Amino acid sequence: MPARPTLDESEQIAPAATTDAAPLAFPEDDVVFRVESVSCYYGSFRAVRDVSLEVPRNRITALIGPSGSGKSTLLRSFNRMNDLIETARLEGRILYHGVDLHADGVDPVEVRRRIGMVFQKPNPFPKSIYDNVAFGPRIAGYRGDMDALVERSLTRAALWDEVKDKLRAPGTTLSGGQQQRLCIARAIAVEPDVILMDEPASALDPIATLRIEELMHELKENYTILIVTHNMQQAARASDYTAFLSMGEDRAGYLVEMAPTERLFTSPQHRLTEDYITGRFG
Amino acid sequence: MTAIPSHSPRLSVDDLRGSSARRRRELFVRIAFMAAASLSIVISLLIILSLAGEAWNFISQVDLPLLLERGWFPRRDLFGIPTIVAGTLVVAGIGMLVATPLGLGAAIYLSEYASPRARRVIKPVLEVLAGIPSVVLGYFALQVISPVVVDQACPGITEQFNLAAAGIGVGVLITPLVASVAEDAMYAVPRSLREAAYGLGAQRRTTSLRVVFPAAISGIVAALILGLSRGIGETMVVSIAAGATGGSLFSVNPCAPGQTMTAAMTALATGSDQVRGATLAFPSLFFVGMLLFVFTLALNLFADRFVRRVRVRY
Ligand SMILES: Nc1ncnc2c1ncn2[C@@H]1O[C@H](COP(=O)(O)OP(=O)(O)OP(=O)(O)O)[C@@H](O)[C@H]1O
Ligand SMILES: [Mg+2]
Hints:
The structure holds 2 protein chains of 2 kinds.
Chain A: E1 31-42, E2 45-56, E3 60-64, H1 71-77, E4 88-96, E5 99-100, H2 108-114, E6 115-118, H3 129-139, H4 146-156, H5 160-163, H6 176-189, E7 194-198, H7 206-219, E8 224-228, H8 232-238, E9 241-247, E10 253-260, H9 261-266, H10 271-277
Parallel strand pairs in A: 3-8, 3-9, 6-7, 7-8
Antiparallel strand pairs in A: 1-2, 1-4, 4-5, 9-10
Helix pairs in contact in A: 3-4, 3-6, 4-6
Chain B: H1 20-61, E1 72-73, E2 78-79, H2 81-113, H3 116-130, H4 134-153, H5 163-187, H6 191-199, H7 204-215, H8 217-233, H9 236-241, H10 261-269, H11 281-310
Antiparallel strand pairs in B: 1-2
Helix pairs in contact in B: 1-11, 2-5, 2-8, 3-5, 4-5, 5-8, 6-7, 8-11, 10-11
The complex binds adenosine-5'-triphosphate (ATP) and magnesium ion.
Residues 71-72, 198, 228 of chain A line the site of magnesium ion.
């Protein structure tokens, strides 16, 4: 096999464009997730149909698509969050650094420590700001300097200055945008490898949204980020790669195309994508 | 058919007054409902007044230091309140020792672990358990709990009637109540909090004990206080199993018979050997009843206070 080039900040690997949803391929070492023909079911209802794609390391990958196209379902499969839903089932494979996440013997608890999640609605625990951030490290048995870890996480989540004088106040007393940054701090306190974000800014005002986007940009230095968003501008502004999902006749979501964000927005390969990003659909 | 006027007609108030019969009916219904609401308040007040009247009657005649004596023998004018308060606390305490782990355990299981199908089966069973008449549980305590359970725990026990059997019986009685109120509180904790915990790599145990349980703490405390309040007021189980006769020596030994406030009241008022004549035994019942009332009222107020203080908004 020829040596594959590694990814650096300046270049984006552009695969040969084909008419079909040709999977974007990255150098082997840079692939965090490889999704192979994944279908997701709720009972007998298929919510996601036959999705294959790759997610590169230290990049922001956005999932966009109309409501109901299975973005959240797909995202929640990456850290086995769907295990919590009784009827949910998955076909195909999601390889995480080469390991099938749904293989026998893989513990979802272990998976979720490496692959953190930020939800659409800020959901701080009804505990103090400090305890919110310290929760993950504590349950993981962290032995180091907790105060330092809390400070570091809050700083990285761009919240430290606003809360450093009231770490004992309940996290629920913060504003919506601050709560969401607290949730991000909480997620990065366990030092995950990947952060999944499901419409993290949809409940926030434009200023708070921009802060979250800036934050994502800083975070990608250390983390791989996968974000679901409804906001075209956000995807265009904040992400490096974008995957567009659509919904078929059977109401199952499927991948239309995935490309470097700039290319997807300037020269989409599919009519559906073009209609969607120009607002003619969905 | 009326012709549609070409200009907007002038209205007078009378046009909009509506039918007076309808207004009268409305007024009548309103008064009927108000009467029902006030009646329940009036009845409660009457109960308190009748309690207070006789209790005062008792207090004003009794030799007050006698109330702090040990031993409850009302027919011999010995009204040692500490005796029956101690008996009540022992029984309610043992009841809570049983009901807290069982009730909260069941609540956590139902809310966090049980599959929907298991929930569908177990919840109704709990409700059936809650519906067992306390008199049945009383005999169960006497015939099963006492010889089988208490006999093991109390070496050399000779009494089949004892506070422990009654306490365990009371515990069984209030377990479904504790479980059901606590379960409601935990089940109501938003799913998003559980997802937050699982998303951080928490196990089910951690999620239930460190996220859901604290988030539901106000409801859980309410469940426990309700259970305690019910345990203090429970009468039948205690009358049957605690060895309540007309009188009792002061005792906090769970392995021995004892007297609770409730059982003291029924013991005096049932059977052919009723209290009569000039003794203070009869009014003493009302005093004890008043005490019970104050106890449970205080507990409920405390519960309310506490619940409000620790309540967290999600
Ligand atoms: N817990 C569930 N049980 C059954 N069906 C579900 C469940 N969650 C989602 N679905 C269905 O799966 C499909 C995809 O839902 P999903 O939430 O993944 O869409 P989405 O792309 O995230 O939509 P949105 O943009 O509105 O968040 C929908 O048809 C939805 O009704
Ligand atoms: Mg969604």
